[in-house]
TrEMBL record:
InterPro entries: DUF3391, HD/PDEase_dom, HD_GYP_dom. It holds the Pfam family DUF3391. It comes from Herbaspirillum frisingense GSF30. Residues 143-338 form the HD-GYP domain. The lineage of its organism: Bacteria, Pseudomonadati, Pseudomonadota, Betaproteobacteria, Burkholderiales. This is HD-GYP domain-containing protein. One of its GO terms (molecular function) is phosphoric diester hydrolase activity. CDD domains: HDc. SMART domains: HDc. It comes from the Bacteria.
Length: 397
């Protein structure tokens, strides 16, 4: 799980995943590694680069450092030059780095991103969309989601600038499949929903990348250009006579709203199809929660809470099913527990969505929570519960 931090916050035991800068400015020959040597820290600080990325599932989190002075340091805590100890603390804050399911999810993420990049490039070159390739990829994504509903989604949250649109397409596809399953759709309908999600933003292939990836506020002209992507995508998809009508429909109308205030056609609620309503939810959720180099994504639980408060935007029944799909505290959400511990949700308990499994971010006494720092809030006798969600639940944030 990647996290953007200030370079000044780097300490031994963190798993470094690159600077938030071009690789030419990079002082290291490796881009990803466990920080074990004081020398590495000095080089990082001397680089003059303000921000970098760390993987908190493979090393220490900032939180553990902030608390170090006050907490009971575990016997495996890192000391200068103590490499094994640094690794041991990494294990406290995280699930195992050698998780084969996560490796599979990462491999699928890379594969899907490259196929999608090619699909967008072909669109720009005026080639008709290759439907069989899209269907095959949706099948792979669907199999992954049905096997492990959260694995792929959790590795799709971080999106670098040049891959955002591609990974967003893949993420919306995966969310659609998962939502379809919650709704009790047939296997084939789940895949249809996945195809809709995958192709919903294909019209962005025809919008300038500089506008699409602009970090700051868009001008009125730029926003007007971006708002053309549903129609551009629709015009592109209908060039393929084999393209299902439902996918073209979703592409054209995924920015419509139930209260008629959407675009491009300001459709009334009963004119918006179920696949389109589903896509609107998955699309906004992924856009809100995506981690970008220039902005931190919304906490997943906060995003669901906010979306539920927007009157007239989404279909309430489908939004409830979406919450049931991801959990009230989706994987990746920050929570504060009754005991005062802060943690990140790593798994749902389908029998009670208010009591997920939590990875504790730090502890004053590791023996309270077991050596791997994982708390199952469904465990009996009951030991803890959630009292706060979102970024504010983590005092280090
Ligand atoms: Fe869109
Ligand atoms: Fe989108």
């Amino acid at each position: 799980m990647l996290k953007k931090i200030n370079v000044a916050e780097l300490v031994l035991g963190m798993y470094f995943c690159g600077f938030d800068a071009g690789w030419l400015n990079h002082p290291f020959w490796k881009t990803r590694f466990l920080l074990k040597h004081e020398n590495d820290l000095e080089q990082a600080r001397a680089s003059g680069i303000a921000y970098c990325w760390i993987d908190i599932s493979r090393g220490r989190d900032v939180m553990a450092v902030v608390e170090d002075d006050r907490m009971t340091v575990p016997s495996g805590a890192p000391r200068d030059g103590d490499e094994d100890a640094a690794l041991a603390v990494g294990a406290i804050v995280a699930r195992t780095a050698d998780d084969p399911a996560q490796e599979q999810a990462i491999a699928l993420r890379e594969h899907a991103r490259e196929l999608t990049r090619s699909m967008f490039t072909a669109a720009r070159m005026g080639k008709v969309v290759a439907l069989p390739q899209c269907v095959d990829l949706v099948e792979e994504i669907a199999c992954s989601v049905l096997r492990d509903p959260t694995g792929l989604l959790s590795v799709l949250r971080l999106k670098l600038n040049d891959e955002y649109t591609y990974l967003h397409s893949v993420a919306v596809c995966a969310l659609m499949v998962a939502l379809g399953r919650t709704l009790g759709l047939s296997e084939s309908a789940c895949r249809e929903a996945g195809l809709c999600g995958y192709l919903h933003d294909v019209g962005k292939a025809f919008i300038d990348d500089d506008i699409l990836n602009k970090p700051g506020k868009l001008s009125d002209e730029e926003f007007a250009l971006i708002k053309r992507h549903p129609e551009l995508g629709y015009q592109y998809l209908i060039q393929n006579p084999d393209m299902p009508a439902y996918a073209c429909e979703v592409c054209l109308h995924h920015h419509e709203r139930l209260d008629g205030r959407g675009y491009p056609d300001a459709l009334a609620a009963d004119a918006i199809t179920q696949y389109t309503r589903m896509t609107a939810i998955c699309d906004v959720y992924d856009a809100l929660t995506s981690e970008r180099p220039y902005k931190q994504g919304w906490d997943p639980a906060d995003a669901l809470y906010q979306m539920a408060s927007w009157e007239g935007h989404f279909d309430r029944r489908l939004l409830l099913a979406f919450v049931k799909t991801l959990g009230i505290y989706p994987v990746g959400s920050l929570v504060r527990l009754e005991s005062g511990l802060a943690g990140r949700v790593i798994r749902q308990n389908p029998a009670d969505l208010t009591r997920p499994v939590v990875q504790v971010l730090h502890t004053r006494d590791e023996h309270d929570i077991g050596s791997n720092g994982v708390l199952d809030l469904m465990a009996w006798p009951r030991t803890d519960g959630i009292v706060q969600r979102g970024q504010d639940a983590n005092p280090a944030s």
